[in-house]
């Protein structure tokens, strides 16, 4: 018969063996088709590859990202917007299958917006929209399917008179193309706006009040966080340390997102350019991190990126 102490030792051994068997050489990231998360995931991918790891970023809807993390098919997600995404995360937080590791951005915001000429015509608040149904063609412009639960809730709650309005779902690029087209023609449009994003410089736009219940106060004022699947940091401490130390600024992301949206760069191309311009951030990101074969990370990354 096994003693309690022996059983505990066996349990600890099996747990450590499980962690040891995890394949940490491959890191699976996910992003929902948002340029900010594509950029930050691209930065993570470039750094991981410079350290000798294989890194992949998969495009998935938000609900699928969480399902895949719960199944351990995705290791990390760098785009959890709090409070805008609380409802998506709640069941996975409660069952412990996904954990929030660190805040990687502050100063973000996320709520409905209109062109300034619409704002100047009197649409300042969610409650002002319904009175101008014909001008707006009874449409609200959102993001990809699975990303618009808050917009759907705001439409359907009965407080704004928008129950019969259509929510037009498309990619971020598709929505912004619609905004650009409508602005050029002086048409009225309500759309999802957020910062960081180059849209804030490209369009003369204003954020609407009235959405606190659905997006949080201060125009959906948000912080963005990095999340891991359960046990990832314990199984893969080196890559987990790197990913948990990545922190960004709104200005930095605005510039990098512009490289993707305006200059046609891929996320990793934009990441490389941005890393060259912000190499001072590498020291903090790579503190205590090594290459896959155990050498100091900072000199290896600097040499690999020609910095």
Automatic annotation (TrEMBL):
It holds the Pfam family OpuAC. Residues 1-22 form the signal peptide. It comes from Thioclava kandeliae. It comes from the Bacteria. Residues 26-275 form the ABC-type glycine betaine transport system substrate-binding domain. Coiled coil: none annotated. Gene3D superfamilies: Glycine betaine-binding periplasmic protein, domain 2, Periplasmic binding protein-like II. Keywords: Signal. This is Choline ABC transporter substrate-binding protein. InterPro entries: ABC_choline_sub-bd, ABC_Gly_betaine_transp_sub-bd. The keyword tRNA processing does not apply.
